[in-house]
Specification:
The chain is α+β, with helices and mostly antiparallel strands and 575 residues long. Among the domains are: 2-56 and 459-573, 60s Ribosomal Protein L30, Chain: A (2-Layer Sandwich), CATH 3.30.1330.60; 61-125, Immunoglobulin-like (Sandwich); 132-202, Carboxypeptidase-like, regulatory domain (Immunoglobulin-like, Sandwich), CATH 2.60.40.1120. The protein contains five helices and 28 strands. The strands form eight sheets. Strands 5-4-7-8 form a four-stranded antiparallel sheet, with no helix packed on it. The protein has a four-stranded antiparallel sheet with strand order 12-11-14-15, with no helix packed on it. Helix 2 (41-53) packs across helix 4 (514-535). The longest helix is centred in the C-terminal third of the chain and has 22 residues, at 514-535. It is rod-shaped and about 155 Å long.
Length: 575
Protein backbone atom coordinates (compact mmCIF):
# COMPACT_ATOMS: atom_id res chain seq x y z
CA UNK A 1 0.00 0.00 0.00
CA UNK A 2 2.86 2.39 0.84
CA UNK A 3 4.47 1.85 -2.61
CA UNK A 4 1.10 2.38 -4.31
CA UNK A 5 0.61 5.72 -2.55
CA UNK A 6 4.14 6.76 -3.48
CA UNK A 7 3.56 6.00 -7.18
CA UNK A 8 0.24 7.86 -7.11
CA UNK A 9 2.02 10.81 -5.58
CA UNK A 10 4.59 10.83 -8.40
CA UNK A 11 1.91 10.68 -11.11
CA UNK A 12 0.15 13.66 -9.58
CA UNK A 13 3.43 15.58 -9.40
CA UNK A 14 3.83 15.16 -13.17
CA UNK A 15 0.65 17.20 -13.62
CA UNK A 16 1.38 19.73 -10.89
CA UNK A 17 2.50 23.31 -11.33
CA UNK A 18 4.15 25.51 -8.85
CA UNK A 19 2.26 28.44 -7.36
CA UNK A 20 3.82 30.86 -4.95
CA UNK A 21 2.56 30.48 -1.40
CA UNK A 22 1.80 33.81 0.25
CA UNK A 23 2.54 32.38 3.68
CA UNK A 24 5.73 30.36 3.21
CA UNK A 25 7.27 32.08 0.15
CA UNK A 26 7.48 28.71 -1.58
CA UNK A 27 6.10 27.22 -4.77
CA UNK A 28 3.51 24.70 -3.66
CA UNK A 29 2.50 21.59 -5.61
CA UNK A 30 -1.07 22.09 -6.86
CA UNK A 31 -3.13 19.35 -8.47
CA UNK A 32 -4.59 19.63 -11.97
CA UNK A 33 -4.69 18.15 -15.44
CA UNK A 34 -2.11 18.82 -18.15
CA UNK A 35 -1.24 22.49 -17.55
CA UNK A 36 -2.76 25.27 -19.66
CA UNK A 37 0.22 27.57 -20.20
CA UNK A 38 -1.77 30.80 -19.85
CA UNK A 39 -3.20 29.68 -16.49
CA UNK A 40 -0.11 27.88 -15.23
CA UNK A 41 1.42 29.83 -12.31
CA UNK A 42 4.86 28.80 -13.56
CA UNK A 43 4.11 30.39 -16.92
CA UNK A 44 2.85 33.57 -15.27
CA UNK A 45 5.97 33.78 -13.11
CA UNK A 46 8.26 33.12 -16.09
CA UNK A 47 6.72 35.96 -18.11
CA UNK A 48 6.94 38.23 -15.10
CA UNK A 49 10.63 37.37 -14.78
CA UNK A 50 11.15 38.18 -18.47
CA UNK A 51 9.43 41.55 -18.07
CA UNK A 52 11.39 42.35 -14.94
CA UNK A 53 14.68 41.61 -16.65
CA UNK A 54 13.59 43.32 -19.90
CA UNK A 55 16.56 41.87 -21.74
CA UNK A 56 17.64 43.53 -24.96
CA UNK A 57 20.45 42.05 -27.03
CA UNK A 58 23.43 44.31 -27.51
CA UNK A 59 22.57 46.82 -30.18
CA UNK A 60 24.16 46.91 -33.58
CA UNK A 61 24.13 50.04 -35.67
CA UNK A 62 24.12 51.36 -39.18
CA UNK A 63 24.19 54.86 -40.60
CA UNK A 64 21.96 56.89 -42.86
CA UNK A 65 22.71 59.96 -44.95
CA UNK A 66 19.78 61.93 -46.32
CA UNK A 67 19.81 64.60 -49.00
CA UNK A 68 16.84 66.60 -50.22
CA UNK A 69 16.18 69.47 -52.58
CA UNK A 70 14.79 71.42 -49.59
CA UNK A 71 16.99 72.55 -46.73
CA UNK A 72 15.61 72.48 -43.18
CA UNK A 73 12.85 69.99 -43.89
CA UNK A 74 11.81 68.07 -40.77
CA UNK A 75 12.68 64.37 -40.63
CA UNK A 76 10.64 62.13 -38.30
CA UNK A 77 11.02 58.49 -37.35
CA UNK A 78 7.55 57.39 -36.33
CA UNK A 79 6.32 60.27 -34.19
CA UNK A 80 9.82 61.30 -33.07
CA UNK A 81 11.48 64.35 -34.58
CA UNK A 82 15.06 63.43 -35.52
CA UNK A 83 16.75 66.16 -37.54
CA UNK A 84 16.54 68.91 -40.12
CA UNK A 85 17.75 68.10 -43.59
CA UNK A 86 20.25 67.46 -44.95
CA UNK A 87 22.22 65.26 -42.56
CA UNK A 88 25.08 62.78 -42.83
CA UNK A 89 25.96 59.52 -41.07
CA UNK A 90 23.06 59.55 -38.64
CA UNK A 91 23.57 56.57 -36.32
CA UNK A 92 20.55 54.24 -36.07
CA UNK A 93 20.10 50.83 -34.49
CA UNK A 94 19.51 47.85 -36.74
CA UNK A 95 15.86 47.44 -37.68
CA UNK A 96 13.00 48.74 -39.82
CA UNK A 97 11.90 52.37 -39.62
CA UNK A 98 8.94 54.37 -40.89
CA UNK A 99 9.79 57.96 -41.66
CA UNK A 100 8.09 61.19 -42.63
CA UNK A 101 9.70 64.20 -44.26
CA UNK A 102 7.74 67.44 -44.00
CA UNK A 103 8.19 71.06 -44.98
CA UNK A 104 5.76 73.96 -45.14
CA UNK A 105 3.99 74.28 -48.51
CA UNK A 106 5.47 71.00 -49.73
CA UNK A 107 3.96 67.54 -49.91
CA UNK A 108 4.98 65.17 -47.13
CA UNK A 109 7.07 62.15 -48.07
CA UNK A 110 6.16 59.04 -46.10
CA UNK A 111 8.09 55.81 -46.57
CA UNK A 112 10.21 53.23 -44.75
CA UNK A 113 13.70 51.76 -44.78
CA UNK A 114 15.72 49.11 -42.99
CA UNK A 115 19.12 49.34 -41.38
CA UNK A 116 21.47 46.35 -41.35
CA UNK A 117 24.58 46.03 -39.17
CA UNK A 118 27.31 48.46 -40.29
CA UNK A 119 25.00 49.68 -43.04
CA UNK A 120 25.78 53.00 -44.72
CA UNK A 121 22.55 53.95 -46.41
CA UNK A 122 22.15 56.98 -48.66
CA UNK A 123 18.69 58.33 -49.36
CA UNK A 124 17.97 61.14 -51.82
CA UNK A 125 14.48 62.62 -51.77
CA UNK A 126 12.84 65.24 -53.96
CA UNK A 127 10.03 67.17 -52.30
CA UNK A 128 7.34 68.64 -54.52
CA UNK A 129 5.50 71.87 -53.81
CA UNK A 130 1.90 71.47 -52.78
CA UNK A 131 -0.58 72.92 -55.19
CA UNK A 132 -2.93 75.56 -53.95
CA UNK A 133 -6.15 75.04 -52.04
CA UNK A 134 -9.06 77.44 -52.19
CA UNK A 135 -12.33 77.59 -50.34
CA UNK A 136 -15.28 79.28 -52.00
CA UNK A 137 -17.81 80.60 -49.48
CA UNK A 138 -21.08 82.02 -50.69
CA UNK A 139 -24.14 83.57 -49.19
CA UNK A 140 -26.53 81.96 -49.85
CA UNK A 141 -25.20 78.40 -50.24
CA UNK A 142 -26.08 76.00 -53.10
CA UNK A 143 -24.35 78.30 -55.56
CA UNK A 144 -22.87 76.77 -58.69
CA UNK A 145 -19.17 77.54 -59.09
CA UNK A 146 -17.61 77.62 -62.55
CA UNK A 147 -14.06 78.35 -63.61
CA UNK A 148 -13.86 78.88 -67.32
CA UNK A 149 -16.19 76.33 -68.86
CA UNK A 150 -15.68 73.82 -66.08
CA UNK A 151 -18.24 73.34 -63.34
CA UNK A 152 -16.28 72.95 -60.10
CA UNK A 153 -19.20 72.10 -57.84
CA UNK A 154 -21.89 73.61 -55.64
CA UNK A 155 -21.21 75.41 -52.38
CA UNK A 156 -22.46 74.10 -49.06
CA UNK A 157 -22.78 75.98 -45.77
CA UNK A 158 -19.10 75.26 -45.16
CA UNK A 159 -18.19 76.32 -48.67
CA UNK A 160 -16.69 74.46 -51.61
CA UNK A 161 -13.09 73.26 -51.27
CA UNK A 162 -11.03 73.34 -54.45
CA UNK A 163 -7.75 71.43 -54.30
CA UNK A 164 -4.81 70.71 -56.55
CA UNK A 165 -4.92 74.18 -58.12
CA UNK A 166 -1.98 75.68 -59.93
CA UNK A 167 -0.76 79.04 -58.73
CA UNK A 168 -2.42 81.93 -60.52
CA UNK A 169 -5.51 84.09 -60.80
CA UNK A 170 -8.82 82.52 -61.79
CA UNK A 171 -12.05 84.06 -63.02
CA UNK A 172 -14.92 82.49 -61.13
CA UNK A 173 -18.55 82.62 -62.24
CA UNK A 174 -21.20 82.13 -59.55
CA UNK A 175 -24.84 81.44 -60.31
CA UNK A 176 -28.03 80.53 -58.48
CA UNK A 177 -31.62 80.70 -59.57
CA UNK A 178 -33.31 83.81 -58.21
CA UNK A 179 -30.05 85.64 -57.61
CA UNK A 180 -27.90 87.91 -59.68
CA UNK A 181 -24.92 86.08 -61.19
CA UNK A 182 -21.55 87.22 -59.94
CA UNK A 183 -18.12 87.17 -61.52
CA UNK A 184 -15.25 87.18 -59.06
CA UNK A 185 -11.50 86.77 -58.98
CA UNK A 186 -9.79 83.95 -57.08
CA UNK A 187 -6.06 84.15 -56.38
CA UNK A 188 -4.30 80.85 -55.77
CA UNK A 189 -0.83 80.53 -54.23
CA UNK A 190 1.09 77.24 -54.33
CA UNK A 191 1.14 75.48 -50.99
CA UNK A 192 -1.26 77.92 -49.36
CA UNK A 193 -4.93 78.13 -48.55
CA UNK A 194 -6.77 81.07 -50.03
CA UNK A 195 -10.41 81.91 -50.30
CA UNK A 196 -13.23 83.59 -52.14
CA UNK A 197 -16.11 84.93 -50.07
CA UNK A 198 -18.99 86.09 -52.23
CA UNK A 199 -22.50 87.35 -51.56
CA UNK A 200 -25.07 87.00 -54.29
CA UNK A 201 -27.83 89.58 -54.28
CA UNK A 202 -31.37 88.53 -55.05
CA UNK A 203 -32.65 89.46 -58.46
CA UNK A 204 -34.37 92.84 -58.24
CA UNK A 205 -38.05 93.27 -58.84
CA UNK A 206 -39.98 96.13 -60.40
CA UNK A 207 -43.09 98.18 -59.64
CA UNK A 208 -45.17 99.68 -62.42
CA UNK A 209 -47.42 102.54 -61.28
CA UNK A 210 -50.14 104.17 -63.38
CA UNK A 211 -52.63 106.86 -62.35
CA UNK A 212 -55.37 108.62 -64.28
CA UNK A 213 -54.49 111.90 -62.63
CA UNK A 214 -51.84 114.24 -63.92
CA UNK A 215 -49.10 115.42 -61.61
CA UNK A 216 -49.17 112.19 -59.57
CA UNK A 217 -46.03 111.76 -57.47
CA UNK A 218 -44.84 108.19 -56.71
CA UNK A 219 -43.06 107.25 -53.48
CA UNK A 220 -41.73 103.82 -52.46
CA UNK A 221 -40.92 103.43 -48.77
CA UNK A 222 -41.03 107.23 -48.46
CA UNK A 223 -38.46 107.75 -51.22
CA UNK A 224 -39.66 109.81 -54.17
CA UNK A 225 -39.06 108.15 -57.54
CA UNK A 226 -40.96 110.28 -60.05
CA UNK A 227 -44.35 110.82 -61.66
CA UNK A 228 -46.88 108.28 -62.79
CA UNK A 229 -47.05 106.52 -65.11
CA UNK A 230 -43.64 104.98 -64.45
CA UNK A 231 -41.78 101.71 -63.84
CA UNK A 232 -39.39 101.63 -60.91
CA UNK A 233 -36.62 99.03 -61.43
CA UNK A 234 -33.94 97.59 -59.14
CA UNK A 235 -36.07 97.11 -56.06
CA UNK A 236 -35.06 94.55 -53.49
CA UNK A 237 -37.40 91.62 -52.98
CA UNK A 238 -39.71 92.00 -50.01
CA UNK A 239 -42.56 94.17 -48.80
CA UNK A 240 -42.75 97.78 -49.95
CA UNK A 241 -45.17 100.63 -49.31
CA UNK A 242 -46.19 102.51 -52.47
CA UNK A 243 -47.74 105.96 -52.03
CA UNK A 244 -49.11 108.17 -54.78
CA UNK A 245 -49.95 111.82 -54.11
CA UNK A 246 -51.48 114.63 -56.16
CA UNK A 247 -52.66 118.13 -55.33
CA UNK A 248 -56.30 118.28 -54.15
CA UNK A 249 -56.47 114.46 -54.01
CA UNK A 250 -56.34 112.17 -51.01
CA UNK A 251 -53.07 110.14 -51.01
CA UNK A 252 -53.22 106.58 -52.32
CA UNK A 253 -51.27 103.88 -50.42
CA UNK A 254 -50.79 100.19 -51.11
CA UNK A 255 -48.41 97.57 -49.76
CA UNK A 256 -46.99 95.22 -52.38
CA UNK A 257 -44.67 92.24 -52.26
CA UNK A 258 -41.74 92.66 -54.63
CA UNK A 259 -40.54 89.39 -56.13
CA UNK A 260 -37.29 88.74 -57.93
CA UNK A 261 -37.50 89.15 -61.68
CA UNK A 262 -41.16 90.13 -61.54
CA UNK A 263 -43.10 93.33 -62.13
CA UNK A 264 -45.82 94.31 -59.69
CA UNK A 265 -48.46 96.56 -61.28
CA UNK A 266 -50.45 99.17 -59.37
CA UNK A 267 -53.21 101.40 -60.64
CA UNK A 268 -53.57 104.31 -58.27
CA UNK A 269 -57.09 105.72 -58.36
CA UNK A 270 -57.06 108.93 -56.31
CA UNK A 271 -60.16 110.40 -54.72
CA UNK A 272 -60.85 114.12 -55.06
CA UNK A 273 -60.32 115.98 -51.81
CA UNK A 274 -59.69 119.72 -52.00
CA UNK A 275 -58.44 119.76 -48.44
CA UNK A 276 -55.11 118.37 -49.62
CA UNK A 277 -52.81 121.21 -50.68
CA UNK A 278 -49.86 118.96 -51.71
CA UNK A 279 -47.59 120.85 -54.06
CA UNK A 280 -45.24 117.91 -54.77
CA UNK A 281 -41.90 116.79 -53.38
CA UNK A 282 -40.11 119.99 -54.43
CA UNK A 283 -42.64 122.61 -53.36
CA UNK A 284 -43.60 125.36 -55.79
CA UNK A 285 -41.44 125.15 -58.87
CA UNK A 286 -39.66 128.43 -59.43
CA UNK A 287 -38.42 127.78 -62.90
CA UNK A 288 -38.67 130.08 -65.89
CA UNK A 289 -39.95 129.75 -69.40
CA UNK A 290 -38.03 126.86 -71.02
CA UNK A 291 -36.87 125.42 -67.67
CA UNK A 292 -39.97 124.76 -65.61
CA UNK A 293 -38.23 122.85 -62.76
CA UNK A 294 -35.43 125.37 -62.50
CA UNK A 295 -32.63 122.80 -62.44
CA UNK A 296 -30.58 124.57 -65.09
CA UNK A 297 -31.34 122.03 -67.80
CA UNK A 298 -33.56 123.34 -70.59
CA UNK A 299 -36.86 121.52 -70.94
CA UNK A 300 -35.95 120.40 -74.46
CA UNK A 301 -32.98 118.50 -72.98
CA UNK A 302 -34.60 117.59 -69.68
CA UNK A 303 -35.95 114.06 -69.44
CA UNK A 304 -37.87 115.11 -66.31
CA UNK A 305 -38.82 118.76 -66.97
CA UNK A 306 -41.05 118.93 -63.91
CA UNK A 307 -38.63 117.14 -61.54
CA UNK A 308 -35.44 119.04 -60.80
CA UNK A 309 -32.15 117.17 -61.09
CA UNK A 310 -30.47 116.32 -57.76
CA UNK A 311 -27.03 117.53 -58.55
CA UNK A 312 -24.84 114.98 -56.68
CA UNK A 313 -22.27 113.98 -59.26
CA UNK A 314 -24.29 111.01 -60.51
CA UNK A 315 -25.94 111.21 -63.95
CA UNK A 316 -26.58 114.93 -63.49
CA UNK A 317 -27.03 115.71 -67.22
CA UNK A 318 -30.36 113.95 -67.80
CA UNK A 319 -32.38 116.33 -65.67
CA UNK A 320 -33.90 113.57 -63.56
CA UNK A 321 -33.37 113.13 -59.84
CA UNK A 322 -31.74 109.84 -58.82
CA UNK A 323 -33.00 108.98 -55.34
CA UNK A 324 -30.87 105.82 -55.01
CA UNK A 325 -27.75 106.14 -57.10
CA UNK A 326 -26.33 102.70 -56.29
CA UNK A 327 -29.67 100.85 -56.37
CA UNK A 328 -29.01 99.25 -53.03
CA UNK A 329 -32.47 100.03 -51.68
CA UNK A 330 -31.15 102.70 -49.31
CA UNK A 331 -32.13 106.23 -50.31
CA UNK A 332 -29.24 108.57 -50.95
CA UNK A 333 -30.49 110.91 -48.25
CA UNK A 334 -29.93 108.07 -45.75
CA UNK A 335 -26.41 107.26 -46.91
CA UNK A 336 -23.79 108.87 -44.73
CA UNK A 337 -21.31 110.04 -47.30
CA UNK A 338 -21.88 111.20 -50.84
CA UNK A 339 -18.89 109.22 -52.07
CA UNK A 340 -20.74 105.97 -51.28
CA UNK A 341 -23.96 106.86 -53.08
CA UNK A 342 -22.61 105.32 -56.28
CA UNK A 343 -21.42 102.18 -54.44
CA UNK A 344 -24.02 99.65 -53.36
CA UNK A 345 -24.26 98.42 -49.81
CA UNK A 346 -22.70 94.94 -49.71
CA UNK A 347 -25.39 93.36 -47.51
CA UNK A 348 -23.16 90.89 -45.74
CA UNK A 349 -24.69 91.12 -42.29
CA UNK A 350 -22.23 93.78 -41.16
CA UNK A 351 -23.49 97.38 -40.80
CA UNK A 352 -25.91 96.95 -43.68
CA UNK A 353 -28.18 99.87 -42.81
CA UNK A 354 -25.80 102.74 -43.53
CA UNK A 355 -25.71 102.25 -47.31
CA UNK A 356 -21.91 102.08 -47.23
CA UNK A 357 -20.19 98.94 -48.50
CA UNK A 358 -17.69 97.55 -46.03
CA UNK A 359 -14.83 96.12 -48.05
CA UNK A 360 -12.93 94.77 -45.05
CA UNK A 361 -15.30 94.18 -42.16
CA UNK A 362 -12.68 93.01 -39.67
CA UNK A 363 -10.02 95.46 -40.86
CA UNK A 364 -7.34 92.79 -41.13
CA UNK A 365 -6.08 94.00 -44.49
CA UNK A 366 -7.67 91.12 -46.41
CA UNK A 367 -10.60 92.19 -48.61
CA UNK A 368 -13.86 90.54 -47.68
CA UNK A 369 -14.04 88.97 -51.12
CA UNK A 370 -10.93 86.91 -50.24
CA UNK A 371 -11.57 86.67 -46.51
CA UNK A 372 -13.00 83.33 -45.32
CA UNK A 373 -13.71 84.90 -41.92
CA UNK A 374 -14.97 88.38 -42.78
CA UNK A 375 -15.76 89.37 -39.22
CA UNK A 376 -12.77 87.75 -37.48
CA UNK A 377 -9.37 89.33 -38.12
CA UNK A 378 -6.48 87.21 -39.35
CA UNK A 379 -3.90 86.67 -36.60
CA UNK A 380 -0.91 87.46 -38.81
CA UNK A 381 1.56 85.01 -37.35
CA UNK A 382 3.14 83.74 -40.54
CA UNK A 383 0.85 80.72 -40.78
CA UNK A 384 -1.92 80.61 -43.42
CA UNK A 385 -2.22 84.39 -43.29
CA UNK A 386 -3.86 84.74 -46.71
CA UNK A 387 -7.24 83.18 -45.89
CA UNK A 388 -8.33 85.88 -43.44
CA UNK A 389 -9.06 83.45 -40.62
CA UNK A 390 -7.30 83.45 -37.27
CA UNK A 391 -5.47 80.16 -36.77
CA UNK A 392 -5.61 79.53 -33.06
CA UNK A 393 -3.62 76.28 -33.18
CA UNK A 394 -1.20 76.44 -36.09
CA UNK A 395 0.36 73.02 -35.59
CA UNK A 396 -2.96 71.25 -34.79
CA UNK A 397 -1.59 69.69 -31.60
CA UNK A 398 -4.61 70.78 -29.51
CA UNK A 399 -2.50 73.28 -27.58
CA UNK A 400 -3.69 76.86 -28.34
CA UNK A 401 -1.02 79.06 -29.86
CA UNK A 402 -1.19 81.50 -26.96
CA UNK A 403 -0.14 78.67 -24.63
CA UNK A 404 2.08 76.83 -27.12
CA UNK A 405 5.82 77.21 -26.62
CA UNK A 406 6.34 75.99 -30.20
CA UNK A 407 3.18 77.06 -32.10
CA UNK A 408 4.40 75.85 -35.48
CA UNK A 409 5.87 72.52 -34.36
CA UNK A 410 3.47 69.91 -32.99
CA UNK A 411 3.72 68.49 -29.50
CA UNK A 412 4.90 64.86 -29.38
CA UNK A 413 2.04 63.34 -27.44
CA UNK A 414 3.89 60.79 -25.33
CA UNK A 415 2.62 61.44 -21.83
CA UNK A 416 5.48 63.76 -20.92
CA UNK A 417 4.82 67.51 -20.59
CA UNK A 418 2.19 67.34 -23.33
CA UNK A 419 0.49 70.59 -22.27
CA UNK A 420 3.23 73.03 -23.28
CA UNK A 421 2.95 72.40 -27.03
CA UNK A 422 6.67 71.80 -27.49
CA UNK A 423 8.09 68.45 -28.55
CA UNK A 424 10.37 66.96 -25.90
CA UNK A 425 13.26 65.29 -27.68
CA UNK A 426 14.75 63.60 -24.61
CA UNK A 427 12.07 63.07 -21.98
CA UNK A 428 14.28 61.55 -19.31
CA UNK A 429 17.26 63.87 -19.96
CA UNK A 430 19.72 61.00 -20.14
CA UNK A 431 21.35 62.29 -23.32
CA UNK A 432 19.78 59.59 -25.49
CA UNK A 433 17.20 61.04 -27.87
CA UNK A 434 13.74 59.54 -27.55
CA UNK A 435 13.83 58.05 -31.06
CA UNK A 436 16.85 55.98 -29.95
CA UNK A 437 15.69 55.44 -26.37
CA UNK A 438 14.00 52.13 -25.58
CA UNK A 439 12.97 53.54 -22.20
CA UNK A 440 12.22 57.22 -22.94
CA UNK A 441 10.62 57.81 -19.54
CA UNK A 442 13.40 56.17 -17.48
CA UNK A 443 16.94 57.50 -17.51
CA UNK A 444 19.84 55.25 -18.53
CA UNK A 445 22.13 54.01 -15.77
CA UNK A 446 25.63 54.43 -17.15
CA UNK A 447 27.49 51.41 -15.82
CA UNK A 448 29.32 50.17 -18.93
CA UNK A 449 26.49 47.75 -19.63
CA UNK A 450 24.17 48.49 -22.55
CA UNK A 451 24.54 52.19 -21.95
CA UNK A 452 23.30 53.07 -25.44
CA UNK A 453 19.71 51.80 -25.19
CA UNK A 454 18.45 54.41 -22.74
CA UNK A 455 17.24 51.89 -20.16
CA UNK A 456 18.38 51.62 -16.55
CA UNK A 457 20.13 48.25 -16.48
CA UNK A 458 21.71 46.34 -13.62
CA UNK A 459 25.06 44.99 -14.79
CA UNK A 460 25.21 41.21 -14.70
CA UNK A 461 28.70 39.74 -14.55
CA UNK A 462 29.64 36.68 -16.52
CA UNK A 463 29.47 33.56 -14.28
CA UNK A 464 32.68 31.63 -13.57
CA UNK A 465 33.30 28.13 -14.86
CA UNK A 466 32.30 25.21 -12.64
CA UNK A 467 29.68 25.21 -9.92
CA UNK A 468 27.92 28.57 -9.78
CA UNK A 469 25.31 27.93 -7.09
CA UNK A 470 24.28 25.43 -4.43
CA UNK A 471 20.63 26.14 -3.59
CA UNK A 472 19.37 24.22 -0.56
CA UNK A 473 15.77 23.07 -0.22
CA UNK A 474 13.71 20.90 2.14
CA UNK A 475 13.02 17.53 0.56
CA UNK A 476 9.82 17.13 2.59
CA UNK A 477 8.26 20.38 1.37
CA UNK A 478 7.91 22.50 -1.75
CA UNK A 479 10.67 24.38 -3.57
CA UNK A 480 11.34 27.74 -1.93
CA UNK A 481 11.15 30.93 -3.98
CA UNK A 482 14.94 31.16 -3.74
CA UNK A 483 15.35 28.22 -6.15
CA UNK A 484 13.59 30.02 -9.02
CA UNK A 485 15.22 33.33 -8.10
CA UNK A 486 18.71 31.81 -8.43
CA UNK A 487 17.74 30.02 -11.66
CA UNK A 488 16.46 33.34 -13.02
CA UNK A 489 19.80 34.92 -12.20
CA UNK A 490 21.74 32.30 -14.17
CA UNK A 491 19.21 32.28 -16.99
CA UNK A 492 19.53 36.07 -17.33
CA UNK A 493 23.30 35.72 -17.55
CA UNK A 494 22.85 33.12 -20.32
CA UNK A 495 20.72 35.64 -22.24
CA UNK A 496 23.50 38.20 -22.06
CA UNK A 497 26.43 35.85 -22.68
CA UNK A 498 25.42 33.55 -25.54
CA UNK A 499 28.40 31.18 -25.22
CA UNK A 500 27.47 29.93 -21.74
CA UNK A 501 26.17 26.38 -21.28
CA UNK A 502 24.98 25.08 -17.91
CA UNK A 503 23.66 21.97 -16.24
CA UNK A 504 21.14 21.99 -13.40
CA UNK A 505 20.91 18.98 -11.11
CA UNK A 506 18.41 18.29 -8.35
CA UNK A 507 20.07 16.35 -5.50
CA UNK A 508 18.83 14.79 -2.26
CA UNK A 509 20.53 13.18 0.71
CA UNK A 510 21.50 9.53 0.84
CA UNK A 511 19.23 8.53 3.68
CA UNK A 512 16.15 6.38 3.10
CA UNK A 513 14.84 4.71 -0.08
CA UNK A 514 17.11 6.06 -2.82
CA UNK A 515 14.97 4.78 -5.69
CA UNK A 516 11.97 6.70 -4.46
CA UNK A 517 14.08 9.81 -3.76
CA UNK A 518 15.71 9.66 -7.19
CA UNK A 519 12.29 9.53 -8.85
CA UNK A 520 11.17 12.52 -6.87
CA UNK A 521 14.28 14.56 -7.78
CA UNK A 522 13.56 13.74 -11.42
CA UNK A 523 10.03 15.07 -11.05
CA UNK A 524 11.34 18.21 -9.40
CA UNK A 525 13.79 18.59 -12.29
CA UNK A 526 10.91 18.37 -14.78
CA UNK A 527 9.16 21.22 -13.00
CA UNK A 528 12.30 23.37 -13.28
CA UNK A 529 12.70 22.38 -16.93
CA UNK A 530 9.16 23.49 -17.66
CA UNK A 531 9.83 26.81 -15.99
CA UNK A 532 12.94 27.39 -18.11
CA UNK A 533 10.98 26.52 -21.25
CA UNK A 534 8.41 29.13 -20.26
CA UNK A 535 11.16 31.74 -20.03
CA UNK A 536 11.57 30.92 -23.69
CA UNK A 537 14.58 32.96 -24.82
CA UNK A 538 17.62 30.73 -24.37
CA UNK A 539 17.99 27.75 -26.72
CA UNK A 540 17.30 24.56 -24.69
CA UNK A 541 20.44 22.92 -26.12
CA UNK A 542 22.41 25.27 -23.88
CA UNK A 543 21.14 23.75 -20.63
CA UNK A 544 20.15 20.44 -19.07
CA UNK A 545 18.00 19.79 -16.00
CA UNK A 546 18.14 16.37 -14.34
CA UNK A 547 17.26 14.73 -11.04
CA UNK A 548 20.10 12.58 -9.69
CA UNK A 549 18.88 11.49 -6.26
CA UNK A 550 21.54 11.07 -3.57
CA UNK A 551 24.38 9.60 -5.58
CA UNK A 552 26.58 12.70 -5.61
CA UNK A 553 26.86 14.02 -2.04
CA UNK A 554 29.02 16.98 -1.08
CA UNK A 555 28.84 16.20 2.66
CA UNK A 556 28.40 13.25 4.97
CA UNK A 557 24.89 11.84 5.22
CA UNK A 558 25.53 10.79 8.80
CA UNK A 559 24.75 14.16 10.30
CA UNK A 560 21.64 16.23 9.86
CA UNK A 561 23.78 19.17 8.78
CA UNK A 562 25.46 17.09 6.08
CA UNK A 563 22.15 15.78 4.77
CA UNK A 564 20.85 19.35 4.52
CA UNK A 565 23.86 20.30 2.40
CA UNK A 566 23.31 17.33 0.11
CA UNK A 567 19.61 18.24 -0.46
CA UNK A 568 20.30 20.93 -3.02
CA UNK A 569 19.83 22.24 -6.55
CA UNK A 570 23.24 22.57 -8.13
CA UNK A 571 23.93 24.91 -11.10
CA UNK A 572 27.17 24.41 -12.94
CA UNK A 573 28.71 26.20 -15.91
CA UNK A 574 30.09 23.71 -18.41
CA UNK A 575 31.52 26.15 -20.96
Amino acid sequence: MKHFLFLTHLIVILMFTMAQSQDSNTFSLSSGTAPDANADPLYIRAKSANNAFNFRPTREYGQITLETNIANASFYLGTFFVSRTPFQDLLLPVGAFHYRLTYDKYNDIIDSFSIAPKDKKNIALVMTARKGTAIVLTRPSDVTVEIGNAKMGVTKDSGLILTNLNSGTYKVHLTKTGFQPLDATLKVVSGEKTGLNAILLPNFGRIQVVSPEDESYVYVNNTYFGRAPMTIPNLKAGRALVRVEARKFAPFSQTVVIRSDQTESITAVLKKDRSYKDIGPYGELKGSWGDKDGDGIRDDDDQCPLDPEDVDGFEDQDGCPDPDNDHDGIADINEQDNKYRSLSEDFDGFEDNDGIPDFDNDRDGIPDTADLCRNEPEDRDGFDDRDGCPDLDNDADNVPDDKDLAPNDPEDIDGYQDQDGAADLDNDNDGIRDYMDLCPQSAEVFNNFQDDDGCPDVKIREPRMGVIKYIPYDFTSDFPESVLTEIDSVYNAMMIYPAIQVEIKVHCDGKGQQKRKTLETEERAKILGRYLAYRGTVDPVRYTVTGVGGRDPIASNVSEKGRQKNTRVEIKRLR
